[in-house]
């Protein structure tokens, strides 16, 4: 492991990967000026089921990274919080991980590993909360035939800064489904990335985000089809309300020359609920072979549909409730996929509250 | 007993070429229990009349008045008009993705009745309404109008008419796009609502065939933004024989 002693890789904002991010609000995570606090905030909640362990240990990274913050984390932190699910273990019900106390005057550099042995099946939920400065290098290792549903909830308080790479390495016939929810924080920048290392894998990256006044939320996918016969789906839905609410969705999908039989589709929809908000949406599909099952992308950004509101109101529903129904309906498709009722209800209430606060 | 009174209603719509006058002075009175058919050629302004009464933001009221039992409908927001007792069955009902029919119906019933209907009686009520309209129970779990066939959309509109129990309903070309069986089922729904709630109906149509199932008390011929002839049910027979040619030329 190398410790970075120079800052020659510090982004300036002109780089493709950083061109949307408000670097000044990153509290020094990107340029090495952040003071690293002694925090290990990731905690398990409740008893772990049989076949599941959680411990801190020294691990070498699964995959290289070209993200400067991930490099800084690796330079500073050899300790990894490791959630491990043994081979052939099928865990009933979700495994919950949460956060201990955070702080804004120092940064936490966190490394996390989630590993599933062959044919292990699990749902893991990480609830990210509080006011904190947190940079995270989270890696997921799926052995052949493993299946993980991975839900991350960014429900931070209003001053939090969170930058993370959530990187999944998907082995033969493994299934990975992630649901990334971002509704809180000042700046949240997540890189959900996927690397197929053997054929037959299947990946679904789903997400919802809701940014209100002043919030910046960036989700930058990268799906690397480096092997034949893998499938990927990306579907992110976002809503924005209030002045200077800003979201960024980047969907990079690379189909390499060897990746014959690839099947991929990515989708991003944004709902602008008021003036003064900005949604950037950039799908990038790079195809190096024509021998594929399918590859496509779509991106839309729109406002409230007046016809929908008129229809609902013509049945006696007030404008405020009609908007709430439309926004809940917009997010439903993905929120339903969480399939944990308590979380779904909490998110929908939060979405209602955000909508009300923004006066949209 | 309710009365919807439309007096000298003038409505324009904004287009790229400026405001265009669509309704040029419409007079019409509809009482509870009465069925008025408005018939006319395409483009005569029939749908504009329907949407203007319901309060669609696309239309600008230039003059005239609409009152329901003396209350000024034109001053009301769209939801207030529904709460006052007006209902519009739309020609092209709108899809609302992610919102289930059951959630939508319950939200609407709660808004119109002023309190959430008791769950047990409500479930029975919805079931009964759906059965009466020959609808699959799975329908309630689908998203509002999403992927509905033309016939399903119209049945869904009439189901709302029956469940929401308005005083006066405007049916905008409810018959269009329906086969004979669906037309009969939908018409029976309207007739039930008339019988059960003493509903007043403003039935807008291009064709006479729905009038075999829903008997009008009055027929109004609509052309060029206003009513050009009025009469009893026999006027529909005359239109069936002669078409609208006489009125369009005027």
Provide the helix percentage of chain B.
25-40%
User: Which segments of chain B are poorly predicted (pLDDT under 50) over 5 or more consecutive residues?
Assistant: none
Give the beta-strand count of chain B: 10
Instruction: Count structural domains of chain A.
Output: 1
| Mean of pLDDT of chain B | 94
Mean pLDDT of chain A: 95
Number of domains of chain B: 1
Strand content of chain A: over 45%
Pfam families (chain A): SUFBD_core
Domain SUF system FeS cluster assembly SufBD core (chain A): 106-330
InterPro entries (chain A): Fe-S_cluster_assembly_SufBD (IPR055346), SUF_FeS_clus_asmbl_SufBD_core (IPR000825), SUF_FeS_clus_asmbl_SufBD_sf (IPR037284), SUF_FeS_clus_asmbl_SufD (IPR011542)
GO molecular function (chain B): ATP binding; ATP hydrolysis activity
What does the secondary structure layout of this molecule look like, with pairings?
The complex is a heterodimer of chains A (360) and B (250).
Chain A: E1 42-44, E2 52-58, H1 68-76, E3 79-85, E4 95-99, E5 108-116, E6 121-130, E7 133-142, E8 147-156, E9 161-170, E10 175-184, E11 187-196, E12 202-212, E13 216-225, E14 231-241, E15 246-255, E16 263-272, E17 278-287, E18 294-303, H2 306-313, H3 319-338, H4 341-358
Parallel strand pairs in A: 3-5, 4-6, 5-7, 6-8, 7-9, 8-10, 9-11, 10-12, 11-13, 12-14, 13-15, 14-16, 15-17, 16-18
Antiparallel strand pairs in A: 1-4, 2-3
Helix pairs in contact in A: 2-3, 3-4
Chain B: E1 3-15, E2 18-31, E3 35-39, H1 46-54, E4 59-68, E5 71-72, H2 78-84, E6 86-89, H3 101-113, H4 119-132, H5 150-164, E7 168-172, H6 180-197, E8 200-205, E9 218-223, E10 226-231, H7 234-242, H8 245-249
Parallel strand pairs in B: 3-8, 3-9, 6-7, 7-8
Antiparallel strand pairs in B: 1-2, 1-4, 4-5, 9-10
């Amino acid at each position: 492991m190398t410790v970075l002693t120079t800052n020659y890789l510090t982004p300036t904002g002109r780089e493709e990967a950083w061109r949307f991010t408000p670097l000044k609000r990153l509290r020094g995570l990107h340029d090495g000026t952040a003071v690293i606090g002694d925090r290990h905030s990731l905690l398990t909640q409740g008893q772990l089921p049989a076949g599941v362990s959680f411990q801190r240990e020294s691990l070498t990274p699964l995959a290289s990274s070209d993200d400067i913050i991930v490099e800084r984390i690796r330079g500073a932190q050899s300790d990894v919080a490791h959630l491990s699910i043994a081979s052939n273990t099928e865990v009933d019900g979700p495994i919950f991980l949460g956060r201990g106390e955070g702080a804004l005057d120092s940064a936490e550099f966190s490394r996390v590993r989630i590993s599933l042995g062959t044919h292990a099946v699990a749902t893991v939920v990480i609830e990210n909360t509080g006011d904190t400065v947190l940079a995270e290098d989270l890696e997921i290792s799926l052995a052949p035939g493993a299946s993980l549903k991975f839900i991350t909830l960014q429900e931070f308080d209003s001053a939090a800064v969170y930058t993370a790479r959530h990187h999944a390495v998907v082995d033969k016939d493994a299934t990975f489904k992630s649901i990334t929810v971002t509704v809180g924080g000042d700046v949240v920048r997540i890189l959900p990335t996927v690397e197929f290392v053997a054929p037959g894998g299947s990946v679904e990256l789903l997400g919802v985000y809701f940014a209100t006044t002043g919030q910046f939320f960036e989700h930058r996918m990268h799906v690397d089809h480096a092997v034949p016969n893998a499938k990927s789906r990306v579907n992110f839905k976002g809503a924005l309300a209030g002045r200077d609410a800003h979201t960024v969705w980047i969907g990079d999908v690379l189909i390499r020359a060897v990746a014959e039989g690839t099947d991929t589709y990515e989708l991003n929809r944004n709902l602008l609920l008021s003036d003064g908000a900005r949604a950037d949406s950039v799908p990038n599909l790079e195809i190096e072979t024509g021998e594929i099952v399918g590859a496509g992308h779509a991106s839309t950004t729109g406002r409230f549909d007046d016809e929908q509101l008129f229809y609902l109101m013509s049945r006696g529903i007030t404008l405020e409730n009609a908007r709430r129904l439309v926004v809940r309906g917009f997010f439903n498709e993905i929120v339903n996929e969480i399939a944990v009722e308590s979380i779904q209800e909490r998110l929908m209430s939060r979405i209602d509250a955000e909508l009300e606060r923004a006066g949209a | 007993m309710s009365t919807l009174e439309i007096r000298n209603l003038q409505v324009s719509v904004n287009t790229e070429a400026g405001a265009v006058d669509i309704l040029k002075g419409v007079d019409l009175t509809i009482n509870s229990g009465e069925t008025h058919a408005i018939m006319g050629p395409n483009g005569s302004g029939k749908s504009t009349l329907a949407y203007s009464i319901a309060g669609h933001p696309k239309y600008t009221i230039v003059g005239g008045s609409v009152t329901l039992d003396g209350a000024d409908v034109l001053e009301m927001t769209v939801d207030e008009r529904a709460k006052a007792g007006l209902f519009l069955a739309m020609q092209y009902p709108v899809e609302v993705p992610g919102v289930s029919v059951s959630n939508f119906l319950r939200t609407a019933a709660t808004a119109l009745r002023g309190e959430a209907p008791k769950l047990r009686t409500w479930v029975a009520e919805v079931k009964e309404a759906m059965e009466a309209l020959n609808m699959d129970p799975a329908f309630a779990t689908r998203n509002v109008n999403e992927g509905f066939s033309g016939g399903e959309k119209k049945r869904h509109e009439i189901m709302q008419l029956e469940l929401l129990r308005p005083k006066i309903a405007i049916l905008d070309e409810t018959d269009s796009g329906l086969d004979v069986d669906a037309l009969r089922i939908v018409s029976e729904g309207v007739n039930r609502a008339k019988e059960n709630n003493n509903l007043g109906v403003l039935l807008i149509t291009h064709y006479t065939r729905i009038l075999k199932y829903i008997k009008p008390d009055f027929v109004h011929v609509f052309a060029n933004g206003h009513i050009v002839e009025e009469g009893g049910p026999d006027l529909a027979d005359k239109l069936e024989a002669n078409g609208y040619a006489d009125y369009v030329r005027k």
